[in-house]
Amino acid sequence: xxxxxxxxxxxxxxxxxxxxxxxxxxxxxxxxxxxxxxxxxxxxxxxxxxxxxxxxxxxxxxxxxxxxxxxxxxxxxxxxxxxxxxxxxxxxxxxxxxxxxxxxxxxxxxxxxxxxxxxxxxxxxxxxxxxxxxxxxxxxxxxxxxxxxxxxxxxxxxxxxxxxxxxxxxxxxxxxxxxxxxxxxxxxxxxxxxxxxxxxxxxxxxxxxxxxxxxxxxxxxxxxxxxxxxxxxxxxxxxxxxxxxxxxxxxxxxxxxxxxxxxxxxxxxxxxxxxxxxxxxxxxxxxxxxxxxxxxxxxxxxxxxxxxxxxxxxxxxxxxxxxxxxxxxxxxxxxxxxxxxxxxxxxxxxxxxxxxxxxxxxxxxxxxxxxxxxxxxxxxxxxxxxxxxxxxxxxxxxxxxxxxxxxxxxxxxxxxxxxxxxxxxxxxxxxxxxxxxxxxxxxxxxxxxxxxxxxxxxxxxxxxxxxxxxxxxxxxxxxxxxxxxxxxxxxxxxxxxxxxxxxxxxxxxxxxxxxxxxxxx
Amino acid sequence: xxxxxxxxxxxxxxxxxxxxxxxxxxxxxxxxxxxxxxxxxxxxxxxxxxxxxxxxxxxxxxxxxxxxxxxxxxxxxxxxxxxxxxxxxxxxxxxxxxxxxxxxxxxxxxxxxxxxxxxxxxxxxxxxxxxxxxxxxxxxxxxxxxxxxxxxxxxxxxxxxxxxxxxxxxxxxxxxxxxxxxxxxxxxxxxxxxxxxxxxxxxxxxxxxxxxxxxxxxxxxxxxxxxxxxxxxxxxxxxxxxxxxxxxxxxxxxxxxxxxxxxxxxxxxxxxxxxxxxxxxxxxxxxxxxxxxxxxxxxxxxxxxxxxxxxxxxxxxxxxxxxxxxxxxxxxxxxxxxxxxxxxxxxxxxxxxxxxxxxxxxxxxxxxxxxxxxxxxxxxxxxxxxxxxxxxxxxxxxxxxxxxxxxxxxxxxxxxxxxxxxxxxxxxxxxxxxxxxxxxxxxxxxxxxxxxxxxxxxxxxxxxxxxxxxxxxxxxxxxxxxxxxxxxxxx
Lengths: 521, 491
Fold this sequence. Notes:
The complex is a heterodimer of chains A (521) and B (491). Chain A is mainly α. Chain A has one domain. Chain A has helices spanning 8-22, 31-52, 84-105, 110-129, 133-142, 144-154, 159-187, 194-197, 204-221, 230-237, 240-265, 267-293, 298-317, 322-353, 369-382, 389-404, 406-432, 448-466, 469-488, 513-519, and strands at 61-69, 74-80. A two-stranded antiparallel sheet of chain A has the order 1-2. In chain A, helix 12 (267-293) runs parallel beside helix 17. In chain B, strand 1 and strand 2 (69-71) form a beta hairpin. Chain B is mainly α and 491 residues long. Chain B is globular. The two termini of chain B are 26 Å apart. In chain B, the strands form 2 sheets. Chain B has a 3-stranded antiparallel beta sheet with strand order 4-3-5. In chain B, strands 1-2 form a two-stranded antiparallel sheet. Classes of the chains: A mainly alpha (521), B mainly alpha (491). Chain A binds chain B through residues 68-72, 109, 112, 134, 137-138, 141-142, 144-145, 148-149, 152-153, 159-160, 163-164, 167-168, 171-172, 175-176, 178-179, 182-183, 185-186, and chain B through 371, 375, 382, 386, 391-393, 397, 401, 404-405, 408-409, 413, 416-417, 420-421, 423-424, 427-428, 431, 434-435, 438-439, 475-477, 480-481, 484.
């Protein structure tokens, strides 16, 4: 866990932050280009990680470890494993698209808007890469203010309500996390290091309380069933780019938290609470889908479909088997791509008709054939059609659930059926209905910018749908590691002096350049 | 007792400040009003010199006047903070006084006198020395609160502050006399020795502890002794409000912790319970009542009450932890107050800069659409508010982090949870100001619409405040180490 090698992750985080600062000194006319350039540069910088990553190892790779605060020992410790790598890449892929979709739709205070987007990007990557609990918390909370401003300043008519609701909900959830982090510090050998904290056994009673505290933070963010009410409001009022970030990345931070902290650190409590999580997940799946059926607003429909889809993720996580967890991680990435695509589609049509109501956007196939095609593709992906990305994730989750409980699997499958119903019904009206002559003159098909925004996601939909293996093989070792922790307890129980056992694995003989460098003292 | 050169040298900074205060008062009548700025420069220069003297003293503790005064790292830490805040106050007053047309040279004299009182407070190792410092500080502040002589609110503030302040001083003095009766000394080390092993139920000692605690609670504006705070903060000139909210609070905490941790450490179980109750009340009332304020100065007054509550968490923890571990809790309080100084001072500076006609624009409505008219000022206010709410990566978060950490260490996890719940509630009123600045349209421009005063001096103040909030939010190590080191000298 020594730092060394090229500081990939620091650069990935700093580049957008520096870009955000630079935007204040850029002329108003070129702000968009600079923001796009920065986000594309960040994407290009992140791409090599995909190939440099060693999928055979569950070690944290590209690690950087610098002391940040000496007392108590808080480190600037970053690293990626097979779980966080796809999420970081998903973030960097989506950000240029968010900048591009805001090109024309954001006209006031453009530089501040773009700065907020870039700050969000830096903080989101930080959340996925942080290996120190306090550092994680700092990134996690630092995102609240820019998101609050994105919704509150550039949002829809009811934005003030939605913004403060989003803010207070997530803040209220995460304060308990801070106390839990501090309690872990005093109980876990006086360290904030996530890897070290995951190596230790905690008393069942402590685990119980810590799990509840973690749950409060992560369940609000996911959002799980009873805590989801902020999501539809925030989505409806947020500008398109805000919705995309919210749905595609922010929600994943909740499930990522469960996977990174709850399962490995609190295995006993996780097992005890698993039935509760499973029940809440199934309720979310069915209830979200059911609510989606009833929505007349496109964004609200997708928001509720998110609640349903995220239910699959939490369901898969608490199956404690390879299929379930790998399916959940796949589903996290897929939901980011597909829902991101759907929100982008809504943004495109909103720019033309200034309405998100299904009734106002009927029959788009004739005037906008290209748009309708892409919308249909994303919709089919969202309902989990084989050959698209979501199928892989949902299939794995259901397979994992089936091993655990056949009834749970059957109930969860209801969500897929309902998803087909609400998605196809939406497509039927929006794509194939009879258009109202009132809107027709405004309906021009996708321009090149919009095409360039949507096509990359379509490519990913099919690429992951047909060849999921590259992602699966990269997360395999890391997921196995989590399961080993979550099912067998610690590999080495801590000694009575509270000393911390070393990092999980001995270094295998075959290593990529990064891993060897990372292991070098 | 002979007055020795050693003693005088030890209190050289105090002597310098008092000398400068006298010089300002004497020079004021003979200085033409066009050159009154010189008095401010004189005060500012004194701050710089004192800062150098005290910084040089850091690390080489000494006592003077037979133990009445102790110059250790602990007092040096507070003094450095006090010089810094006083320096900022002088810079802020520079333009603020002109805007308010308070052209009184004695203003700077009173600031320096108040400062010297604060310095005596944090250096005092004897209850009477501390009392002396408290009175010197308070008397100067009473006058300063009423300096806007044309405004009834300012006079009301002054009168209210004086009556309640005098009352609380009386209580403090009564407590000191009872403690003298019980312990036979007013010197803190002697008291500590005398009460060691004393029963917690000793009635005289208990009564003395409570009275001294109440006396300090008035100065710290802890619920239920906070009643004066909102009116005084709102009525006083904003520069004075900022000075009171930060410097007087810092000095009071400095003296308060020395008295209780060092002098009354033997009955820590008693006072930690007492402060636990006060702390809970303060957190609840400060944060809840701030929710409904429409005046920013009043809102910040309640916010400062609430922040005293957060700092008190550390004091409670210090009382709960074993003496060897207590210094971490003490340092968390010092850190909290030091970091709180930056953000609160910054927020008050922005308020002082916002003018509406000839008056201050201190209603929340006056901030409407500030982001459109003055994006940079709005951004700074945003950062100060976020920091006051304790959201990372700002200094406010670091302060809360350490205080909560000592609470969890002392086994007060539930108190940390409670405090964090109220921190989340407080985020609502801090963000409401952000909302007004960023999400409301500015009012139509008229002669009375709020405008912004910007001078080099004010820019320096804001630059210092924002640098502190951001730098210590991202890299708190230097100030954490300083506080940790300083807290060690409190035994």
